[in-house]
Design goal:
The chain is 77% helix and 0% strand. It is an all-alpha fold. It is found in: Membrane.
C-alpha cells in the first residue's frame, strides 16, 4: 500500500505538471501532503511516527500520524535550506552583474563571432555548456551560461528552448565526473571501488554523448538558420543592436567598474569550484560587495534588491517545494517502498540479466528518486542481489550510473528551477523537448559500456 501511494504521488504530480493543470510549486507541495494524509488515515506511518516522536509503537494514534507530517516537512525543508539560501544569493549576485552590464562584452563578442549566424551561436552554446559543466555544479553552469547567452538569444530571436535543452544535456553528461554528485555517491557506497577504472569506463560514453549533443546543436542551428536566415550583421549593425536598450537599463550599467566586477565574479567562481568556502558564504559576500561597489546610495541599493527579488522568489520557492516533497517522501517510508518495488518486481529467474535490469531500474530510479535516495537506499540492495547472480559490486555500481541520463529532468533536481526561471521556459514543455535527447544519451551510455566491457547485461 505504501509503494502504491508513492507511485500515485509521483504519477499524479507529474501528470498535473505535464498537462499544465497546476503550478509546479502548488503541485509539489499539495500532492504529497494529500497522499501523506491518506496514508496516515490508513495507519501506514505508525513505525516512522514512533521513531520521530520517540514513543512506544503501540501508543501511536491516528492523530500522531497526521500531526507528525509537520515535523517531517520541517526536516525536508532543513535539508534543502542550504540549496535555497545558496540560490537566493547566487541569483541576486548574478542579477546585479547583469544590471551593471558585466556580461554585455561577452554577449557582444559571441554575436560578433557568429555574425548573426544562428548555427554558430547554438554550437557555441553546446561547447560553452560542456566547458563550464566540468566544474560538476549545475547551478554554476546555469548561472554562467544563461547570463552570457540569454541576451544573445534575445537579440537574434533564437528559440530559448534550444538554450535550455543544450545546457541541461551537456550538464547531464559531465555530471558523471567523479567529483560530481552521482559518481561520488557510488564511490561512497561501494567500498574499495577503483575510482580510476570507474572514470576510464565512463569517459568513452561521456565523450561520445557530448559529441552527439554538439552535433545536435549543429542540426538545430541549421534549422534556426532556415527559420531566421543569416543576418550578415556588420560590426556597426551589431553595435546598433546592443545600443537598443532602455534609458532605465542604461542608467543601471556601471562600465567604469567592469574590471572590479569581473574580478569579483571570477574570484567568486574560483572559490566556488575550489570548495574553499561554502557557496552560501561566497554569494552572500559577493552580493553585498556588488551592491556597495556599484550602487552607493541607500535608495539605489533598496531599488536593486526589490527589483531582483522576483527572479529570486520564482526559483527559491520551488526549492522549498522540493524540500516539502522530500521530507514527506523520505520520512513516511514512501521512498524506501518505491525503491523496494523497483527491486522486487524482478523475478528471481531473471537474475542472469541483472546487469540489464540494473541499467533499466537506474532510469526511473534516477528520475523519481533523489540521488541520495537512489544511491544510498536502492544501490546497496542492487549490489547485494547482484552478488547472488554473479555480478561484481563494480559492475552493478557502474550500471546504476547509466540512468543518470534522465536525472536532470527530475523535479527533485533543485537547480533546474533556476534554469527554467532564467529562460522563462515551462517545465512540462522543457521536459518533453529534452526527453528524446536524453533517451539517445542513455543508449549511447549503454552501448559504450558494452563495447568497453564495463557492464555485462547478462551472464
Amino acid at each position: 500500500m505504501l509503494a502504491l501511494l508513492a507511485w500515485l504521488t509521483v504519477i499524479v504530480f507529474m501528470a498535473l505538471i505535464l498537462t499544465k493543470k497546476m503550478h509546479p510549486f502548488t503541485a509539489i507541495v499539495l500532492i504529497p501532503v494529500l497522499f501523506a494524509v491518506v496514508g496516515a488515515m490508513l495507519g501506514l506511518y505508525a513505525a516512522p511516527t514512533a521513531r520521530t516522536l520517540k514513543m512506544p509503537l503501540e501508543a501511536v494514534t491516528l492523530w500522531d500520524q497526521i500531526s507528525v507530517l509537520g515535523t517531517w516537512i520541517k526536516q525536508g525543508l532543513t535539508r534543502t535550506s542550504g540549496t535555497a539560501f545558496m540560490l537566493f544569493f547566487a541569483i541576486m549576485f548574478f542579477s546585479l552583474m547583469l544590471n551593471v552590464g558585466l556580461f554585455d562584452p561577452l554577449a557582444r563578442r559571441v554575436v560578433h563571432l557568429a555574425k548573426g549566424d544562428p548555427l554558430k551561436v547554438l554550437v557555441a552554446t553546446s561547447v560553452l555548456a560542456t566547458i563550464v559543466s566540468m566544474s560538476g555544479d549545475g547551478t554554476t553552469t546555469t548561472l554562467i551560461c544563461c547570463t552570457a547567452l540569454i541576451p544573445v538569444y534575445r537579440k537574434l530571436n533564437l528559440k530559448m528552448m534550444h538554450l535550455g535543452v543544450l545546457l541541461i544535456l551537456q550538464n547531464t553528461i559531465l555530471n558523471l565526473l567523479p567529483w560530481s554528485g552521482p559518481t561520488a555517491r557510488v564511490i561512497a557506497v561501494i567500498e574499495g571501488i577503483d575510482v580510476q577504472r570507474l572514470l576510464n569506463g565512463l569517459l568513452p560514453g561521456m565523450i561520445l554523448a557530448s559529441l552527439f549533443v554538439t552535433a545536435g546543436a549543429y542540426a538545430l542551428g541549421l534549422s534556426e538558420r532556415r527559420r531566421l536566415g543569416v543576418q550578415h550583421l556588420s560590426d556597426a549593425d551589431i553595435d546598433a543592436i546592443f545600443a537598443e536598450t532602455s534609458s532605465e537599463a542604461d542608467a543601471l550599467k556601471r562600465p567604469q567598474h567592469t574590471l572590479v566586477n569581473g574580478l569579483l565574479t571570477f574570484a567568486s567562481l574560483a572559490l566556488l569550484i575550489s570548495g574553499t568556502f561554502d557557496p552560501v558564504f561566497i554569494f552572500l559576500v559577493g552580493t553585498v560587495l556588488a551592491l556597495v561597489i556599484n550602487y552607493k546610495t541607500l535608495a539605489e541599493q533598496k531599488d536593486r534588491l526589490y527589483a531582483n527579488s522576483g527572479e529570486v522568489l520564482a526559483t527559491v520557492i520551488m526549492v522549498i517545494g522540493a524540500g516539502v516533497f522530500m521530507g514527506i517522501f523520505t520520512n513516511t517510508g514512501m521512498s524506501d517502498a518505491l525503491a523496494g518495488s523497483l527491486v522486487n518486481v524482478v523475478p528471481e529467474a531473471m537474475g542472469r540479466f541483472w546487469g540489464l535490469i540494473v541499467v533499466l531500474i537506474s532510469a526511473p530510479g534516477g528520475f523519481f528518486l533523489s540521488n541520495d535516495a537512489f544511491f544510498y537506499g536502492v544501490l546497496p540492495v542492487l549490489v547485494q542481489a547482484g552478488k547472488i547472480y554473479g555480478f561484481t559490486p563494480f559492475e552493478v555500481g557502474f550500471a546504476s550510473l547509466l540512468g543518470q541520463a534522465f536525472h536532470m529532468l527530475s523535479p527533485l533536481t533543485a537547480f533546474i528551477y533556476l534554469l527554467l526561471s532564467m529562460t522563462k521556459l515551462d517545465m512540462g514543455e522543457w521536459q518533453r523537448a529534452c526527453f528524446g535527447w536524453c533517451l539517445a544519451i542513455f543508449v549511447i551510455f549503454i552501448a559504450a559500456a558494452l563495447a568497453f566491457g564495463m557492464v555485462p547485461l547478462y551472464r
